[in-house]
Amino acid sequence: MTELWQLSAAQTATAIGLKQASASEVARAALARLDAVNPALNAVVDCNPEDVLVQAAAIDARLAAGGTVRPLEGVPVTIKINVDQKGYATSNGLRSKADLIATSNNPVVEGFLAAGAVLLGRTNTPAFSARYFTDNQLFGPTKNPRDPALTPGGSSGGAAAATAAGIGCIGHGNDIGGSVRYPAYACGIHGLRPGLGRVATFNETGPDRSIGFQLMSVQGPLARTVHDVRLAFGAMARRDIRDPWYFEAPEPADTPRLAAFCAHPEGIDTAPEVEAALRDAAARLRDAGWTVVELDAIPPLKEASRIMHKLWVADAPERILAAAEAEGDPGAIFSMKGAIDWVGPVSLTEFGDTLTRRASLVRDWARFFEDWPVLLLPPSSCLPFAVDADLKNGFEWLTERQYFMAGPPAIGMPAMTVSTGLSGRAPVGVQILAGRMREDLCLAAGEAIAARGTPPAPIDPLTV
């Protein structure tokens, strides 16, 4: 018999709408699942069960009074600890912000609430949300439910681990260099990085961030089914005037079923298991009736990755590194110092030139997507990293394996990771890119690929 916590978001909302289950019953099942598996994962680090049950009871009362069923009615959703949720700390994994209590909701939170979701708990992130690994001095490490020897990814590692283990149907995350897509890959689920401006965001607890962050940081959902990712994106992509980058995209006019894939752009080497998963995804897409062509070259990824890192740290390197050193978190210091050293000193003129070059790359990629509406790439050049592999192997070692993650944010276009299976215990999958405002193409291709495999089901965490 399927337990309530095992249902997808779509199944949960349907069951509640048909009165096959109440929101309160779903919430109690979600809390019980959290209690059962979270101690082994440390994925959810802030949860108020009484608040969860109050939210669910309000939904039941609303439906009993004749309210219409919303897309995420009663669906348990987790929120990452680096966005504002009223009454909870926006700590971002920092001891210095452990008591920074939000008095208003980030637009993402408002979107989930408006769609009928129940906010189940808040998920872990590395300090400053600055690593492909999830650990901090405030809450400690999050474990990958598929294999505790592997990273759950970062920075939305808590969201991915929780969702993979059935703690909620949808996890909220954010992505500046892979922080939605890489945890989804590492934990064997799906994650969408929307294009710049498609999902509004604003934290009243903190000042506006530097221009590099503003150009690349986006909010996105993680889920066990691509359809649930679609539902979550619909809830998140709603108007909010607090975000100056937000815009409402027109409805897509068509869905061209034409895609390309590239296994080794710019000579980037990929592990055999990674390339096999990419070719498998291309074959699945062909089986679904798409035309899929292999390309030898695409617009620059390595340069885009360097631009991403330069925009991340170069406009305030001393301030960024000082904040990491004040927190005393080894992973944050490693990531920030590593990025600063890798980029090297950047003058004001060079910083301006970098922004100018970014515009040229955006143009090159926009032209590419006019010819090839969908592009399949590896999520990473290797299988998910071992825990703390960055600290053991060095920053340059890491960046050379993550061009596929770090390059796309510099161009501001949508990208999605779709899980396609396992290689031993390690998840494998594919990354899907599309042109500006075409998240729908990422989702359509993702649904076609995922439909020809076994959907990721909630799993019990492996502890050895």
Automatic annotation (TrEMBL):
Alphabetical list of SUPFAM superfamilies matching this protein: Amidase signature (AS) enzymes (SSF75304)
Enzyme class: hydrolase
Enzyme Commission code: 3.5.1.4
Any matching Pfam family: Amidase
Record-level Gene Ontology MF annotations: amidase activity
Domain of life: Bacteria
PANTHER family, per database record: GLUTAMYL-TRNA(GLN) AMIDOTRANSFERASE SUBUNIT A, MITOCHONDRIAL, TRANSAMIDASE
Protein family membership: Belongs to the amidase family.
Record protein name field: Amidase
Organism of origin: Paenirhodobacter enshiensis
